Amino acid sequence: MNGLYALLSPSAVKALLRPGFVGGLMSITSAALAAEIQFNTDILDLNDRTNIDLSQFSRSGFILPGVYPMTVQVNAQHLPEQRVEFLPPDDDLKGSAACLTPELLDQFGLKEEKLAQLTWWKTAKCLDLSSLPGLEVSGDLSTSTLHVSLPQAYLQYTAQNWDPPSRWDEGVPGLLVDYNLTAQSIHQDDSDSRMGLSGNGTVGANAGPWRLRADWQGRVDNDSTRRTQNLEWSRFYAYRALPALQARLTVGENYLYSDVFDSFRFTGVALTSDDSQLPPNLRGYAPEVVGVAKTNAKVIISQQGRVLYETLVAAGPFRIQDLNDAVTGTLDVRVEEQDGSVHTFKVDSASIPYLTRPGTVRYKLASGRPSALHGGNEGDFFGTGEFSWGISNGWSLYGGALGDNSYRALSLGLGRDLLAFGAVSLDATRASTQLQDETLSGASYRLSYSKSFAEYDSQITFAGYRFSEKNYMSMSEYLDARHYGGPVGGSKSLYTATFNKQFRDAGVSVFLNYSNQSYWDRPDQKRWNLSLARYFNVGAIKNVSFSLNMFRTQERDQPSSDGVYLSLSLPLGRTGSLSTSANRSQNKNSYSARFSDRLNDRTHYQLSASNTSVGGYLSHTGDLSDVDLTVGLEEDNYTSFSLSARGGATVTANGGALHRSSSMGGTRLMVDTQGVPGVPVRGYGSPTRTNAYGKAVIADISSYYRTGASVDLENLPKNVEATQSVTQLTLTEGAIGYRSLDVIAGEKAMAVLRMPDGKAPPFGATVKNARQQDTGIVNDGGSVYLSGIQPGDQMIVSWGADEQCTLTLPASLPTDGLSSELKLLCQTGTAKNAVAPPPTVGTPDDMEKKNS
């Protein structure tokens, strides 16, 4: 009824608001929901009470039979937009009910036993609502929403921001190109300039559930003496999700992602249980990389020669936490400083205890031929398989086998949920290797522990120990031995631990990371990093922070690299901070002061000065790419400049757009505002605006999570309004989602409509544009407030459930804007055939004289 009240004249509204007068407006029969509402039109301040069409308001919640685009909301969770048909029920030919088709029911996520109980009407086209007791369905045209309420016991398992597979969206076919480029120029006073360009990225195509991907990486270095360049395709592969198996099928060049065996590169096929398809609380652990940069630096994270991550970081401590949780094994970290120095270290991504939900089995199968990134095939055809079985609430049994013609490995382990004491797992692997004329056989044992102490604000992310006998060889060590023609120093033991602790009352947080890798015939590798942070107030100054970072890295026969970093930071204004720090690294001391602040919500910067150098760091989140810029100058040493850009391009049959992106080849959502440019769209991270064709892409969306995108209503351009501003969906891995949001662009003005015979359309008639968007409702005397006015466009006027006439907007709008009322002729006939004389414009006084 709110839409009707908006049409009444001021005198009628005052009458409606008198106490006790609402009862005079309408009489409702005893069957309140089904009966028709009888309007008392005598109270309406209208010149012609015989020319009224209020049929759409005559029943509470009544929707005329027809097909409507609607967002379906099941128990407050939004499904993708559907075309919902409303039909008159057999027992109420004057009513209407939503037709829930079998295709729509599939997205509800009903349990199998409930699906078997369903009955249908309209020749099995629509659900018989009585077959699901407790089901309630209602439509709301004002928000284009179909509300569905169901007992939760009918539905499959759901979690916050996670939907069952029946609601997953495979996206639309399309092409994508993602890139991450870094350019550097370093001029050292005692040598010539060095310039370099490096990068990596992904080229891909989507077709149905299949994702085709090709990863590339390259580097060009140029100085006065030589020029080196390298550009290579590091992987060609295709994959798809198999929701029925909660698994992922991959074909092509791949890496063995195993919870039991070491990782290596191969070409073949793999079928693995996909943890990312599980609810969030059952997913795996993603490794993180921590360190300290002496200057503004470039950090490159790679594995077996393949670049996984590359970024610019500001001087000081850094912590990279957005690596993929599928990454396993040893990671190589390379930190390239602006002064030309380089230091490297390794990170071992140990696994958390291997536990599986009771009654379920997780598995991983793979077969193919090992292959090196910079060479051909390295080994014979192999096969591997592993499993984990949830025996009960507390116990899990897991194991696996791996082998080829000359290598055999068998593993078996047991995991135990210790409830309040965390989780632990223990496994043993036995391997036998035929290497030339020698047979080596040995065992490896692994113990893992994980515990979150919520009551103490602390967490042991993982603690692991692994011991391998001297003659034990992993598959990757076996492949190295084949390549180099003899045994390669095998691993002896590995300790790993990560610990977090919050002392909230004291404002202190602690982070500790430790790893120790020893070998039978090589020096040990050790690395630890300790971070302490203290937050406190000093008088009127709030949130002062003090931090301490200590680290040590020892790589094989290289001298150990020790460092201590102290920092004190004072907040300035709303977003700025001033900090001073002392750093000791590689037996050198340095002192610096830094000022950081935001230019706006998208851009922040840092200026630094030390006893020997000055530098700057700028980071900008753009609509087309993310850009980082660093500059540095050290007296009598070097001058440097670095620039990085991360972004991508996505093209579908519905259009294309450039966009920012940090996850190469990842999941993304294209939002279409139906040709309206400059519309701010919110998703993950900062808002982005639609391009000249009304398209925007939100990248870096989490796969299998419920994702929302919305129009930023507070920052809409002038003369743009969104009648549908929110959409939600759950995309499978690597999908290109597509959603269209209902946005109207154009001028707004009062208009007076007339039929060819001089009469006005009836009170309550609706006006829509060519895209069937509501642009106005006719008031008394044919007056209507129109939105979305575009020069030369046509709009359709409907009443009595039919399209009655078409009006043509002026080819050119008045130079003084639309402060005057438009006088428009509504010509009978279709929009294509309707011909009307040029509309005229009159003042409000002119229109009032004519109406009277």
TrEMBL record:
Q: Does the keyword Signal apply?
A: yes
List the subcellular locations.
Cell outer membrane
Keywords in alphabetical order:
Cell outer membrane, Fimbrium biogenesis, Membrane, Signal, Transmembrane, Transmembrane beta strand, Transport
Domain PapC-like C-terminal span(s) in chain numbering: 752-808
The record describes its membrane topology as:
Multi-pass membrane protein
Disordered as annotated region, ranges? 833-852
Instruction: Return the SUPFAM superfamilies for the record.
Output: FimD N-terminal domain-like (SSF141729)
Residues of the signal peptide: 1-34
Q: Which residue intervals define the domain PapC N-terminal in the entry?
A: 38-182
Which InterPro entries does the record match to this protein?
Fimb_usher (IPR000015), Fimbrial_membr_usher_CS (IPR018030), FimD_plug_dom (IPR042186), PapC-like_C (IPR025949), PapC-like_C_sf (IPR043142), PapC_N (IPR025885), PapC_N_sf (IPR037224)
Which Gene3D superfamilies does the record match to this protein?
2.60.40.2070, 2.60.40.3110, 3.10.20.410, Outer membrane usher protein FimD, plug domain (2.60.40.2610)
* Primary residence: membrane
Q: Which family does it belong to?
A: Belongs to the fimbrial export usher family.
What's this protein's name? PapC/FimD family outer membrane usher protein
Query: Which species is this UniProt entry from?
Result: Pseudomonas lundensis
